[in-house]
Write a structure and sequence with these properties.
Distance between the termini: 63 Å
Order of helices and strands: HHEEHHHHH
Number of domains: 2
Mean pLDDT: 91
Low-confidence stretches: none
Helix content: 55-70%
Number of strands: 2
Number of helices: 7
Strand order of the largest sheet: 1-2
CATH class of the largest domain: Mainly Alpha
Radius of gyration: 24 Å
Strand content: under 5%
Shape: elongated
Largest sheet: 2 strands, antiparallel
């Protein structure tokens, strides 16, 4: 099948398929005499694997390691679990950071009058002009 059909059947855009090929995640893609890529069912399976891993937030390095383990039928699941556990911990750190950002923005939005006046604690904070104590005090009001 050609790249358009592979993209449709795998749920991965043609641009991303070419990108994954350039990274070596999708090896050995055959080409026609005219140079067009030809994909088979094994490649589709690999593309779906990559798409699912991306959906779960794994980065390209992690995906490469997981693909290598997936292809190795004598692998130890311990290494797969180690990669997944590391990713879970990273996700948890990001969740905590995002929640902190959310709380800060909620406090700043609460402090902003949102009227016709030019004073805005949100912009002051972004510009580094807000005093941390006063923003916190306004947030508690």
């Amino acid at each position: 099948m050609n790249i358009g059909e592979a993209a449709q059947r795998s749920g991965v855009s043609a641009k991303m398929i070419r990108h994954y090929e350039s990274l070596g995640l999708v090896p050995g893609v055959r080409r026609t005499e005219a140079g067009y890529r030809q994909y088979d069912d094994d490649t589709l399976h690999t593309l779906r694997f990559i798409r699912r891993a991306r959906d779960l937030g794994f980065d390209m390095q992690e995906i490469a390691a997981l693909l290598q383990l997936w292809r190795n039928k004598r692998r130890s699941s311990a290494e797969v679990k180690r990669i997944a556990a590391h990713h879970v911990a990273d996700l948890q750190r990001r969740i905590v950071a995002l929640q902190s950002m959310q709380r800060t923005l909620q406090k700043l939005a609460h402090c902003c009058a949102g009227d016709d006046r030019p004073e805005c604690p949100i912009l002051d904070d972004l510009a580094g002009e807000a005093e941390p104590e006063s923003a916190a005090a306004h947030g508690a009001a």
